[in-house]
Write a structure and sequence with these properties.
Length: 384
């Protein structure tokens, strides 16, 4: 939905025009999965799909929230009643951001909000981070908080970890807040230092397809948290602050030290090799060798499937069908247990590959996937 429509609906709901309209995108992660809570490297880029919010300030301690995407009236919350774990609806994301801002000492005295998002939900494309970041950016602007983008991302992560209760890392919020059009974001999640890496697929005769398997996932469920706890156990057993500190050329020695801790061995191997894959992709892209990143993406999928064990039959089917049809590389993207896969292909093969994936899903009697092309798009910004 465009800025004007969102502003118009805001006016109908609240009786006056909004003070402004902001947008924040979802993301796909090119490479670097589950590395973010291990202080490692990630490389997402922003999707053209975005959450759009019309927002005005209030000074009476009320937060009023409405979404075009969810049936229901305006939700009215008292700021002094916002508490972690108190809300299990979609409103927890924007409310969590207001809570996190206030808890960090920022003076936010209320807001009226109307939201509309085109980021598919439960598809591993960061629909929740888009909601959080758009609210954080709007309130930062309106209340003149002067926060840097990385600070907004940190506050949004806190909202998600503490208020919503999902133990996620910092990648999605940083991607939504910091990505730029035409680039992938090379992010070091230890200190949030970042480099924008040019990623112009069309110029290279390439396309990147996103295949939403329609298998819904959730990070507040136990499996994500179990992987995170397993990684932390690995770091503790190895005596490092985070698995980021295990060098790629020291991997075999580290695994030997873990002995018969079979599950931890698999998790550690994924994280250490995945960090290395991010560095390899950065090197290839920086050298203008975009065509060559495909096999690295595919290796990443095998590692997530066999070592991290977070793939599912639908994601594996996308990858296998794409590779059999001549894709340059393919992998699941995002948190896993469903959600989306990405397929890197020559532009000329994209339609045939899409058709084969759809046919393979039909033959397996899976729900039809949703396939679209991803182009590296803008991060969060003010629209009006
Ligand atoms: C989800 C989380 F929100 C991210 O922090 C990240 O861990 C990702 O899964 C896996 O790379 O999107």
């Amino acid at each position: 939905m465009g800025a004007q429509q969102v502003a118009q609906r805001f006016t109908e709901l609240y009786g006056t025009a909004p003070e402004g309209v902001w947008a924040a995108p979802g993301r796909v992660n090119l490479i670097g999965e589950h590395t973010d809570y291990n202080d490692g490297f990630v490389m997402p880029f922003a999707l053209p799909h975005q959450a759009v919010a019309a927002v005005s300030r209030r000074d009476d301690g009320l937060l009023r929230l409405h979404s075009a995407d969810v049936a229901g009236d305006v939700a009215e919350l008292r700021l002094d009643g916002l508490a972690p774990g108190s809300d299990s609806a979609w409103t927890a994301y924007p409310a969590g951001v207001v809570w996190a801002l206030r808890e960090a000492g920022h003076e936010v005295t209320g807001a009226d909000v109307h939201l509309s998002s085109t980021v598919p939900t439960g598809a591993g494309l960061s629909s929740s981070a888009a909601l959080e970041v758009v609210i954080a950016l709007a309130l930062d602007d309106l209340y003149g908080l002067g926060l840097q983008r990385w600070q907004l991302a940190r506050l949004c992560q806190r909202a998600e970890n503490v208020y919503v209760g999902a133990p996620t890392g910092i990648m999605d919020q940083t991607a939504s807040a910091c990505c730029t059009s035409g680039h992938a974001l090379f992010l070091d999640t230890r200190d949030l230092s970042q480099r924008q890496i040019p990623f112009d697929l069309a110029a290279e005769g390439l396309r990147l397809l996103v295949v939403d398997t329609q298998v819904k996932h959730a990070h507040s469920g136990g499996e994500y948290g179990k992987r995170r706890a397993g990684c932390e156990k690995g770091a503790a057993l190895l005596g490092v602050d985070a698995l980021r500190d295990v060098p790629h050329d020291g991997l075999e020695a580290a695994l030997a030290r873990l002995g018969d801790e079979e599950e931890v061995v698999r998790l550690v191997r994924h994280i250490v090799t995945e960090n290395h894959r991010v560095e390899r992709v950065v090197d290839l892209l920086s050298a203008g060798r975009t065509h060559e990143i495909g096999p690295v993406l595919t290796e990443g999928h095998a590692s997530l499937r066999d070592d991290f064990r977070i793939s599912c039959p639908e994601l594996d089917l996308v990858v296998d069908t794409a590779l059999a049809g001549g894709a340059l590389g393919a992998r699941m993207t995002g948190g896993g247990f469903g959600g989306s896969a990405i397929v890197l292909t020559r532009a000329t093969d994209a339609d045939t590959l899409t058709k084969s994936i759809e046919e393979a899903f039909a033959a397996a009697a899976f729900t039809p996937p949703r396939v679209f092309e991803a182009t590296p798009s803008a991060g969060a910004h003010r629209l009006t």
